[in-house]
Amino acid sequence: MKYIFLINKFSLKKQTQKMNEKITEYCKKNKLDYKIEINSEDCSTEDILKKYTKSKDIIICIGGDGTINRVLNMVANTKNILGYIPFGTGNDFYRTNKELLKKGINKIDLVKINDKYFINTACFGVDADIANSEKLVHSSILPKSQRYNMSIVKNLLIYKPRHLKLVINEKEYEDDYNTVVLCNGRYYGGGYKIGPKALLDDGILDIYLAKKTSKIKLIKLLLNIKSGKHEFDNSIERINAKKVYIESKNKVMCNIDGEILESNKFNVEVIPKGINIYYNQEMIDEILQNTEK
Fold first, then answer.
1. Model confidence pLDDT, tens digit, residues 7-61
2. CA distance 148 to 150
3. What CA–CA distance (Å, rounded) separates 289 from 293?
4. Pseudo-torsion of CA 139, 145, 150, 155, nearest 10°?
5. What H or E segment, with its residue span, contains residue 108?
6. How far apart are CA 248 and CA 207, in angstroms?
7. Domain co-membership, 61 together with 167
8. What CATH code is carried by the domain that includes residue 279?
9. CATH number for position 210
10. Strand 171-183 versus strand 162-168 pairing type
11. Nearest to residue 11, comparing CAs of 35, 60, 57, 45?
């Protein structure tokens, strides 16, 4: 089994050479069979991954939640194992892994939403708007710790609830919702602990429904989510389910693991232990040491 490291030179820019050196140093030190792949204008990450569709390797992508999701959607349904080096803005999937995964290969649930997959969270409403504010969330001007906070402020000023119809455990729900979050993992939004009890391998989603409220109460709710205290908020309904159907009269944006999915119908289903994840904190620490964003 070979370790395939994917470096996105367009995202890493000046860190590409440093990352290359750190990976090489770590792999030689630990006597790993490895290869470093760097994309280019003539060879995209998707083109690189096509070479490994019939192999059984550990595909280690370097980046944030969105990068992991894009690679996940190419690794799913192959024999490959998904690994990562967290080097993004939010790194929320990494936060969950630190709490739940053991070193090495872990089988976790894979979630299918329409024709895409996710492994961390999917959200609708104000959360999706906040996460999808590309200019703020990925701003090179704002401090990393303040990017999501600025996006929250901006989106709260203009946000309008979404009218959604949901079918969960054969029960229908229909209302104006501030947010609907489907959790396989525990964190989203750069450290907000939305699913404090979520497990990656239990075959179910932790679902949170928050109906329309005043903006003052919505601010309080977001602050409670930050610390995981929303579990005790009576304005939130928490449900466990293996399947979810969501419908809207108009197209709505959903944020899945940092990527945007837009539709007016969403079919969601958990595939129990449907993906293998490679987690190695020692590797992460050594490769990221002295590598600045």
1. 988 777 778 888 999 999 999 999 999 999 998 888 898 999 999 999 999 999 9
2. 5
3. 11
4. 100
5. strand 104-113
6. 18
7. no
8. 3.40.50.10330
9. 2.60.200.40
10. antiparallel
11. 45
The region that residue 68 occupies, defined by phi over 0 for left and psi between -120 and 50 for alpha, beta otherwise, is alpha
* Residue 49: its H or E element: helix 45-50
Phi, psi of 174 (to 5 degrees): -145, 125
**DSSP-based three-state secondary structure for 250:** strand
Q: How many residues does the chain have?
A: 293
Alpha helices by DSSP H, listed for 185-280, are 215-227
> What is the count of structural domains for the chain?
2
Contact 34, 3 (CB under 8 A): yes
Q: Which one-letter DSSP state was computed for residue 187?
A: -
**What's CA 199's distance to the chain center, in Å?**
14
Q: Which of 196, 171, 170, 177 is nearest to 185 (CA)?
A: 196
Q: Which amino acid is at 58?
A: I
Residue 265 one-letter amino acid: K
**Nearest Cα residue to 222 out of 137, 129, 86:** 129
pLDDT in tens, 167-201: 999 999 999 998 899 999 999 888 889 999 999 99
Residue 266: both structure tokens together: 């969403």
Compute the distance between CA of residue 162 and CA of residue 183 in angstroms, rounded to an integer. Answer: 19
Q: Work out whether the CA dihedral 191, 193, 197, 201 comes out positive or negative.
A: negative
Domain shared by 132 and 268, yes or no: yes
Cβ–Cβ under 8 Å, residues 60 and 33:
no
Tokens 């999706």, located at residue: 128
142 — phi, psi (to 5°)?
-75, 145
pLDDT value of position 136: 43
